[in-house]
Amino acid sequence: MGLLTFKGGIHPNDGKSLAKEQAIVSVLPKGDLVYPLSQHIGAPSNPVVEVGDKVLKGQMIAEAGGFVSAPVHASVSGTVKALEPHFNSTGSKVPCLVIENDGEYKETEYVPVKPLDEMTKEEVLNVIGNAGIVGMGGAGFPTRVKLSPKEPEKIEYIIANCAECEPYITADYRRMLEDTDKLVSGMKVVLSLFDNAKGIFGVEDNKKDCIAKLEEAIKEEPRMSVKVLQTKYPQGAERQLIYATTKRAINSTMLPADAGCVVDNVETLIGIHTAVVEGKPLMERVVTVSGDAVENPGNFKVLIGTNQQELIDAAGGFKTTPQKVISGGPMMGFSMFTLDTPITKTSSSILGFIEDEVAKAQTSACINCGRCVEVCPSRIIPSRLADYAERHDEETFVKQNGLECVECGSCSYVCPAKRPLKQSIGSMRKIALANKKKKA
After folding, report:
1. Torsion of CA 272, 278, 282, 286, to 10 degrees
2. 44-48: long-range contacts at Cβ-Cβ below 8 A with a sequence spacing of 24 or more?
């Protein structure tokens, strides 16, 4: 039987060997902590503290600003120093709470936890929501909302995204190895919400040690299984992961719940465990610092709000001034112009590269080779869609299924003409989706 996968995809150099064998190291912040009020999809959170207030680690400092929103908690004890704009990883200035760290890490009194089997489903959902858990693989969708579909009885699969297909990133890999029990516990919590669901851990076959550890950890769990996926990018994209593990297909007009599925990232499931089993809100995450410009690549457990430059320093700094620094993976991450930005709930990695290969590339005309079509996991025609986008032909772009693009960048990666296909299509998608929302 062949490995589970999808049509299309690519096999870029994964670069994971730089940090893969480096165990998770905890890093404490040295400077002020900066907390963006929007670290998630949906409405920004609303501050519940004022400048000059003393706060404790674990204390809520901003509450959810609506149903699709999430609260923010202090990850240190100290004094609220400011509410002011700061750059985030995408280069936007956003409202942030700034806390001066007193270095004492005094914690607030948490609500006592109840055994999972004594909690109602609503209680579990409330704990997850109040803990500020969001999708920590990059999207940042509030987890309480994701776990509250209209028809929970129709959810048949809870899929743990253990693929980590982006090159260089190894944070989830180390989490799977070092925190296996917490990952399985998080899955158990989510399964308690859905009576008819089974849990699937979808792991690429290049992580055989993780597969073995997970299979051992769930051998007494009849509702859980490990499914081995072909190592290929973008195996961890939501639609592709759902198809590979269940053979169910969804498109841009559907949610995973429409196919009876819920997908959660490794870090998210561990955050669910921490909230429901340990009674603590989301205050930390594991971040990979890697790339050929980094002195000592590794994986670091870091408090939310820590300055990204401090994380680079923890990795020994840069060997030489990098031409490119990326927040996230090299395929779907964001190029950064400053490291004076905070680690947020969705920060998976910081990558530094000696050379900017993309900037050096010379773009030429399309040669109609069809390689972009061959690798596209959405089975669309990227070269044509990019043409429509460049001509601002939104109507034809939408008719030719431009909204089905998942912006994985596979097309740009294989294009011999070095055309910025993903970038052109992504820009038009944003315009088309915004106009669609206005009409609705």
Report:
1. -80
2. 44/69, 44/95, 45/69, 45/70, 45/71, 45/72, 47/83, 47/97
Q: Select from 234, 256, 276 the last residue of a domain.
A: 276
Whole-prediction pTM: 0.96
Residues 6 or more apart in contact with residue 200 via CB below 8 angstroms: 157, 158, 159, 160, 224, 225, 226, 227, 245, 246
> In DSSP terms, which residues pair with 134 in a beta bridge?
142
Going from the first residue of the chain to its last (440 residues), give the mean pLDDT of each consecutive group of 10, the final group possibly shorter.
87 96 97 96 96 98 96 98 94 96 96 94 98 92 97 98 97 98 98 98 97 98 97 96 97 95 98 98 98 98 98 98 96 94 97 93 95 97 97 97 96 97 96 91
SS3 69: coil
Other CB atoms within a 10 A radius of the CB of residue 236 amount to 26
CB 258 within 8 A of CB 150: no
pLDDT computed for residue 2 by the predictor: 66
Eight-class DSSP state of 4? B
Residue with the two structure tokens 């596209």? 376
Residue whose C-alpha is closest to residue 271's, from 261, 259, 279: 279
Residue 100 lies in a domain: no
Of the residues 276, 309, 337, which one is the last residue of a structural domain? Answer: 276
Same domain, 377 and 256: no
Q: Which residues pair with 279 in a beta bridge?
A: none
Distance between CA atoms of residues 323 and 355, nearest Å: 5
DSSP E strands, 171-323: 198-204, 224-229, 261-265, 284-290, 298-303
CA distance 274 to 265: 14
The reported pLDDT for the residue numbered 281 is 98
Residue owning tokens 């299979």: 215
Q: Are residues 400 and 258 in the same domain?
A: no
Q: Within 10 Å of residue 31's Cβ, how many Cβ atoms?
A: 11
Number of domains into which the chain is organized: 2
Residue 191: CATH number of its domain: 3.40.50.11540
Q: Which domain holds residue 176?
A: 116-276
Q: Is residue 433 part of a domain?
A: yes
